Amino acid sequence: SKILVHPSNANKIYVAADLNYRVWTHGGESGFFESKNGGSTWERLHIGEVTDAVMDPDSPSIMYVGIRDQGLYRVTNEEERWDWNLVYPSSNVTFPPGEQIQLSTIKIALGRQGDPTSPLVAVKFHKQLFTNTRAGLGEWHGAGDVGQWGDLDQSESCNVIAIDPFNNNVILSGLQDLYRTLDGGANGNQSWVKVAGYNMSVHSDQMNIVFDPSNIKIVYLANDGGVYRS
Questions:
Q1: Cis (ω within 30 of 0) for the bond into 89?
Q2: Is 88 exposed, middle or buried (0-12, 13-18, 19+ CB in 10 A)?
Q3: How far is residue 150 from each of residues 29, 147, 154, 167, 202, measured CA to CA in Å?
Q4: What is the pLDDT of residues 143-180, one digit of tens each?
Q5: Phi, psi of 171 (to 5 degrees)
Q6: 73-99: pLDDT as tens digits
Q7: How far is 198 from 18, CA to CA, in rounded Å?
């Protein structure tokens, strides 16, 4: 699902491994793994089907890890001591009557604006989006539902989220279709506008989004139709 390399020690590599519907053709172990020697040997740090992992670029000892059927963890590593803190769902979060969180494919993004010790964290459970402005701690806010349900759902293979590094309010997210918000999802579903996918000039089935970290307003999108630049 994701490969992370420590920014100051290239021998430290982390791998998020997920076993989902493809397990019958892609055998192997799921979990969150660490290598301290450039991949020669590996240690599994946590068991579970890990669908995404993000390293805090300002504090590499802090990572956010999404594990299927468990939730979002805020993980800290101090002097080889790993602390796994389940931050969402948490006891201080309530849902409207009849609504239940979808702990299937979890995707994560971090904002780069504001206090670097307390970054914006955006997490996507299937198509449900939530944000937190305190590094994943404390109160979370619903930011809308972006994507397809039912027969049109392809969230196991098409599931993306990214935050503009120059503007925390600009978020791109979706499944087969891609949506954009300019207010950080403050108005729920009303905040989002479709920008790619079915019946659009940009192909459907979104696989990955990368904002250019040094050039404002440039973003790359990978999907079934290739790689697009905006």
A1: yes
A2: buried
A3: 29, 10, 9, 33, 23
A4: 998 876 666 667 777 899 999 999 999 999 999 999 99
A5: -130, 135
A6: 999 998 889 999 999 886 555 554 445
A7: 28
Question: 161 near 144, Cβ under 8 Å?
Answer: no
Q: Three-state secondary structure along the chain?
A: CEEEECCCCCCCEEEEECCCCCCCCCCCCCEEEEECCCCCCCEEEECCCEEEEEECCCCCCEEEEEECCCEEEEEEEECCEEEEEEEECCCCCCCCCCCCCCCCCEEEEECCCCCCCCCCEEEEECCEEEEECCCCCCCCEEEEECCCCHHHCCCCCCCEEEECCCCCCCEEEECCCEEEECCCCCCHHHHEEEEECCCCCCCCCEEEEEECCCCCCCEEEEECCEEEEC
In contact, 119 and 62? CB cutoff 8 Å: no
Residues 6+ apart with CB under 8 A from 169: 181, 182, 183, 184
Supply 163's token pair. Answer: 């935050």
Query: Could you tell me the two tokens for 224?
Result: 């079934």
Specify the pTM.
Answer: 0.90
**Residue bearing the bigger pLDDT, 20 or 196:** 196
Written as six digits, the tokens of 97 are: 């009557």
